[in-house]
Amino acid sequence: MSATALAKRTTTTTLSTRKGGDPIVCLTAYSAPIAKLLDPHVDVLLVGDSLGMVLYGFDSTLPVTLDMMIAHGAAVVRGSTHACVIVDLPFASYQESPQQAFRNAARVLAETGCAAVKLEGGVEMAETVAYLVARGVPVMGHVGLTPQSVNTLGGFRARGRNAEESESILADAKAITAAGAFALVVEGVMEPLAEAITAAVTVPTISIGASVACDGQVLVTDDLLGLFADFTPKFVRRYAELGPMVTHAAATYAEDVRHRRFPGPEHVFRVKRKTPPSEMAP
């Protein structure tokens, strides 16, 4: 990537200075065409492991592989010029040890050209975050409802419903911040807890189902556009309903093909008729 292209992008350093300032706008992207459409309007394009559910049809993020994340991350970088591109580290690619995390994070940075990685976890991941940051890998943290831990959390439920759980998540946020994360995603927690985390940490917090009091917001783009209909989380606002439009377009196309209305004369290539010599002007 050229120095000119890099200079245009929002950086992790810039994002870290947005604490308490203009809200950070973040959406997910998994492909170059979508990245190109979103890029002028957002500060961050997150290549989330949510792609496992919205693109691949898995029922959780757990089957997503590092190679998947690299392929989609590289596509999003190619399709954007402005936003800071951050790529999720998928399940089992970083939990084993800080050394494993560094090897895989280094691959992600080198093979995609992204600016940073995101990983889930709290106190137990602080050592790993510090290890990565010390070796030049910018890290975005993720606390609260952590989808990669769905089996131990007992499903996709809001967290921080009692004092003990709230205190634990707040401790997670503080530990990841102290370890050197430049920003923190706070997902699916009760609003007072999101407000408390935002007040307690020195880095920007980015909410997904948390609170408007956070320093930014992120949504899964397929949810925002109405393209993913398997379920709709409470915190999602649909800004468009493209799913029914896609269905209608496909049905109309099918009808036109079956009734031979498509392709029409304007859609096919024809050999131009040469003018016979007898019709040429004298």
How would you explain this protein's 3D organization?
The protein is elongated, with a radius of gyration of 23 Å. Helix 5 packs parallel to helix 6 and helix 6 (98-112) packs across helix 7. Mean pLDDT is 93; it is low at 1-5. The chain is α/β, with parallel strands linked by helices and 282 residues long. It has 12 helices and 8 strands. 40% of the residues are buried. The chain has helices at residues 3-8, 12-16, 32-38, 51-54, 66-78, 98-112, 126-134, 150-153, 163-178, 191-200, 221-224, 242-258; strands spanning 24-28, 44-47, 84-88, 116-118, 139-144, 183-187, 205-208, 216-219. 3-methyl-2-oxobutanoate binds at residues 49-50, 88, 118. Mg(2+) binds at residues 49, 88, 120.
Can you give the helix content as a percent range? Answer: 25-40%
Number of helices: 12
Instruction: Tell me the span between the first and last alpha carbons.
Output: 62 Å
Examine the secondary-structure arrangement and name the CATH architecture of the largest domain: Alpha-Beta Barrel
CATH-defined fold name of the largest domain: TIM Barrel
Percentage beta strand: 5-15%
Query: What is the N-to-C succession of helices and strands?
Result: HHEHEHHEHEHEHHEHEEHH
Give the helix/strand class.
alpha/beta
Tell how many strands the DSSP assignment holds: 8
Number of domains: 2
Q: In CATH's first tier, which class of the largest domain applies?
A: Alpha Beta
Spatial strand order of the main sheet:
1-2-3-4-5-6-7-8
